[in-house]
Design goal:
The protein has ten helices and 19 strands. It is α/β, with parallel strands linked by helices and 379 residues long. It has one domain: Carbon-nitrogen hydrolase (Nitrilase/N-carbamoyl-D-aminoacid amidohydrolase), CATH 3.60.110. Helix 2 runs parallel beside helix 7 and helix 5 crosses helix 6.
């Protein structure tokens, strides 16, 4: 009996040892991709010394998230190019897209994850190689997390993600002496402080951070209030009534994360606070979707001021122009810009063009496959 027990124990210990060896090997950091895939750039207005919005549609791949160094190399390359063009100054507000920080979930992981043909394959490898942390966060997921798999994946890496997100964007803001609207990142119950981010157990939120010209993180969270139907199983909703306005050198600035820009009540606080600038980080997760018929509002009731006959009749591009910042800001003396995450994240697609509201007029770039940047000077 004792011999059988020892044999079983030996087998279990061997299995555990083999698992840990497998889990911690194959994590060499691949070389960064230094190609920006920059298709085109745009200049709107002339510099009269009042500052500018710099929108960046970066081209990202899984390799760009393999390490803090890779991430900084890629997103910093666009700022370096903008500096060369003379587009950066202390009154510049740089806007990165939605989910730019969320894919940091694969930082410091097995190399096979970055080379996976599909996101599902990458997730499976991630779960197997982070089994203990994943299981912990799966069982402690809050009741509102219907998709515990996705919740646990992001929650299990929240400390690593938040650390890289803060360090990289803080360093870039300080180096180039600009304000940065750092797209968005998925974190559980985050708290922003000037020099660090705390995360706690609980619901995941799609949040955006704003960094000042000294690299300090503004201690105010922007939480996406209208998660789409695809996000709702694992992303909790913020409140539009809690949406902050930031006092930046170029003027008071509000941030609307993607879908929030489609809803009238998202504009209440910025109207009250007199925001001059509006940043919209966005992400459209499929190729050529802007040319496809608009399918209406996702996961929430259609606002009363929307013409429902447009659903299925006009394209998504036309709907963006009719029901988001071009319509809701135009003619109000404000400046707004929407940017989108581009690239190839496993088998996920991407689409979206830079949309800019220039006081009385609207600019929308043509469809592109690669990265793009737009500099809009404030008049």
């Amino acid at each position: 009996m004792k011999k059988a027990f020892r044999n079983i124990l030996f087998i279990l210990l061997t299995i555990i040892a083999v698992y840990y060896i497998w889990s911690y090997t194959g994590r060499q950091v691949p070389s960064p991709d230094t190609d920006m895939h920059l298709d085109t750039t745009y200049i709107i207005n002339s510099d009269v010394g009042k500052g500018n919005l710099l929108g960046i549609n970066p081209y990202m791949t899984p390799l760009d998230y393999a390490s803090k160094e890779n991430f900084r190399t890629k997103i910093g390359a666009y700022l370096q190019d903008a500096k060369r063009r003379g587009w950066l100054n202390p009154k510049t507000v740089v806007i990165y897209p939605e989910y730019i920080g969320s894919w940091l979930v694969v930082a410091n992981e097995k190399t096979s994850i970055y080379n996976s043909p599909t996101m599902q394959k990458a997730i499976s490898t991630f779960i197997l190689s982070n089994a203990i942390l994943y299981i912990r966060d799966w069982f402690t997921a809050p009741d509102d997390a219907k998709d515990k798999i996705k919740h646990a994946v992001f929650a299990s890496k929240s400390e690593t993600m938040s650390g890289i997100y803060k360090e990289v964007f803080s360093g870039l803001a300080k180096e180039y002496h600009v304000s940065i609207v750092a797209g968005s990142i998925l974190l559980p119950n985050a708290e922003f402080h000037k020099d660090h981010i705390d995360t706690w157990k609980g619901s995941l939120y799609n949040i955006s951070g704003v960094f000042d010209t000294a690299g300090k993180l503004e201690p105010l969270l922007v939480k996406k209030a209208y998660p789409t139907s695809e996000e709702q199983p694992f992303v909790a909703a913020g409140k539009t009534s809690e949406s902050p306005t930031f006092q930046l050198p170029a003027g008071r600035t509000s941030v609307l994360i993607c879908a929030d820009s489609w809803y009238p009540d998202s504009y209440t606080n910025m109207n009250k606070d007199g925001a001059l600038l509006v940043a919209v980080p966005s992400y459209t997760q499929s190729d050529r979707s802007m040319q496809m018929p608009w399918m209406g509002y996702s996961g929430h009731p259609t606002p009363k001021d929307v013409d429902t006959s447009d659903i299925g009749r006009i394209s998504l591009r036309e709907a963006w122009l009719k029901y988001t910042i071009p319509n809701r800001l135009k003619g109000k003396g404000r400046y707004g810009m929407c940017v989108s995450l581009r690239g190839r994240m496993w088998d996920l697609g991407s689409d979206g063009e830079i949309i800019a509201v220039n006081g009385e007029s609207v600019f929308c770039g043509p469809p592109l496959k690669g990265a793009s940047m737009a500099c809009m000077w404030i008049k």
